[in-house]
Design brief:
The structure holds two protein chains of two kinds.
Chain A: H1 26-34, H2 39-65, H3 84-96, H4 104-123, H5 129-149, H6 165-192, H7 196-211, H8 214-228, H9 237-263, H10 266-274, H11 279-309, H12 321-329, H13 339-368
Chain B: H1 7-14, H2 28-61, H3 91-123, H4 129-143, H5 147-158, E1 169-171, E2 175-178, E3 181-184, E4 186-189, H6 193-221, H7 227-245, E5 250-253, E6 256-258, E7 261-263, E8 266-268, H8 270-296, H9 300-308, H10 313-343, H11 355-367, H12 370-399
Antiparallel strand pairs in B: 1-2, 2-3, 3-8, 4-5, 6-7
Helix pairs in contact in B: 3-8, 3-11, 4-8, 5-8, 6-7, 8-10, 9-10, 10-12, 11-12
Amino acid sequence: MQNIFKTEPVEFKPAAALPAPSSTVGPVAWAKANLFSSIPNAVVTTLVVLGLISVVPGIIDWMFISATWSGASQEACVSDGACWVFIRAWSQQFFYGSYTDGQLWRVNLSLLLLFVVIVLSFTLPANSRLKVSIPLFLALPFVCIAILDGRLLGLQFVSTDLWGGFSLNVLMAAAAIIVAFPFSFLWALGRRSEMPLARSISVIFIEFFRGVPVLALFFMGSVMLPLFFAEGTNVDKLVRVWIVLIFFMSGYMAEVFRGGFQAVPSGQYEAADSIGLGYWQKTLLIILPQVIKVSMPNILATFVMLFKNTVFLLIIGIPEVLQTLLTALSNSNWLGGHAVEGYVFVGAIFWVCCFGMSMLANNIEKKLDTSHRN
Amino acid sequence: MFKQKTTEQIKSASRKTDSGSYAFYNNPKYRGMIYQALLIFGLAYFFYAIISNTLGNLEAAGIKSGFGFLSNAAGYDVLMSLIDFDSTDTYLRVFIVGFLNTILVSILGIFFATILGFIFGVMYFSKNFIIKKFSVVYVETFRNIPLLLQILFWYSAVLATLPGPRDSLSLGEAVFLNVRGLFVPKLIGEGGSGFVYAVIAIAIVGIFVLRSWAKKRQELTGQQFPVFNASLAIIIGLPFVAALLSGFPFIVDYPSLQGFGFQGGITVIPELMALTIALSVYTGAFIAEAVRAGIQSVPHGQTEAARSIGLKEKKIMSLIVVPQAMRVIVPLLNSEYQSLVKNSTLAAAIAYPDLFNVFVGTALNQTGQAIETIFLAIVVYFAVNMLISFIMNRFNGNVELVGR
């Protein structure tokens, strides 16, 4: 007998979904939604596109197509375009200043060391990361100075008057922020301390260095600081500027760290207390690693500010990259008006570095963001 | 700020100090005292060393100290001054000239930076893709290039390439732009102009009265009053009527080409233009970020709720989103304005005669009194920043969340 209820088990197969209506996908729909959603929008889009069409080809033509790329002197630049020969001829000065020829590997080595230490501080295994990278960072400025100066290592002596160019901007900013780190940490601790005197001194210090224009600080470094040292002491100009940058930076970073300290949940402090850790054990082993982690985006943002501010060194006559550019522009062999090329070039270098760092800061912030608000 | 207590302080205050069971140096109270005493001794020694070194150095260099130099004749001219000045005037007058120039560039910079910042900040939320990207490009470009480079760029790569006075760019034979600067007509009041100024003052007071009246009426009766249009009518209409009544007691002083330069009108020197443009564009990028952050901080539910009770899109922006966004924006604006004032010291790079340039730059070089000049300049910048902070905090009080 045939069982009519017994049928082959049929798997339920939904029909394939229909594609979205053609009016909602594809470039046309995208343009309709984002460019021509209303009449005013369409008008604005058209105007902007027309404006871009009238400007952009000219810029591209100036920068690339009719630009002069090769040659040795100003005479090579006969076309209407940009004269990149100028940048090319001065590129060594832009990057290394007047650092002695043949010794440039020392600048490269310093930059390489900086790069290696930064990479290490991100890639080392988590349990040894801070223990290894903090001493490396703190030793780095002094190692770099020894390499660049050369006297300690028995290399050819290169006076600080010759240091310059973009590498000086980078190394100066890095050296300042690294040394400012422990100081700013102390100021932030002082500001949170329960000792009233320590607290007020920290507050006065931090607010002073945040409130004074950087330029005033540089002037203080170049004209007031020599007065403070005992008679006859001659402190190198770069070292004085370095000291100023360290103080300036530690004022800002102290506020960053204060924010970090506040962001660490109070349960962490209490847990550390409850297992009987002392003040420094608690601060260094439990709190500091968390503070550094949460304030990383702000530290990077502060570093970007410092890095941009290293250009101010030109006002007190230190040959950093912009000062080198001004020197190059007034050179008698290059009086052809290459100001735009020069500013575009230096601006582009800074833009790439600063934009890269702020992208990195954004990424870290996104990684740290555990809230699900959006 | 000295009185804020951290959790640790509160805890230690409530902790019982049982001094019998452990050594006194383990008592946090005594320990704190010892540390602070050490700190004071260290600082005292530090300052003693600095001061004695400085006095010794000053004596060795033969530099006088004290503020007596302020009443000496300066002996140099200043490129631009808002008050009468010539080279026989005192250093004190140099100080005032520089101060006024700093204030001028700061006010101009703050004004234009705020406008640029709000325009580009709001543009970020445009539905138009191109407009949105335009705002992103503006912010990311100008925020990431050092300000000093921008100042020099505007000054020596843009403004210096403008045509000479004879072929200057002109707008209706009234406004001229050339390599020497921007020349605009000037309005000079004659007898009877005091009446018009008084009417302008009355109109401004009238707007505030009207606003508070309209607000009160709306709260009582629910009826709305077109405050914005009425204010516009008052501020433009009243002075216009007054000027007509008094027979327009003004003459317009147009700049005109005479010989090699322009005479008459108001001259905006290229240094001031370059500094104002660079400061406003740079700070404007930061303000745009602040505005964007402020608007993004308003939860989307607020907009949806406003739509659901039937508010128009325009009203949603002005009544719901902006007031809430301002709570985030105003404190950020405060710090941006302060850094703009501090950054105006970069005038030194293009020789705009601001306080820092004429006083710390030139006066310091001539007198050698580094400590006094830098001290005076720093005090001024602190005072200006505190004033900005005060005003912005008052403003912040208006937009803050009112707890009920």
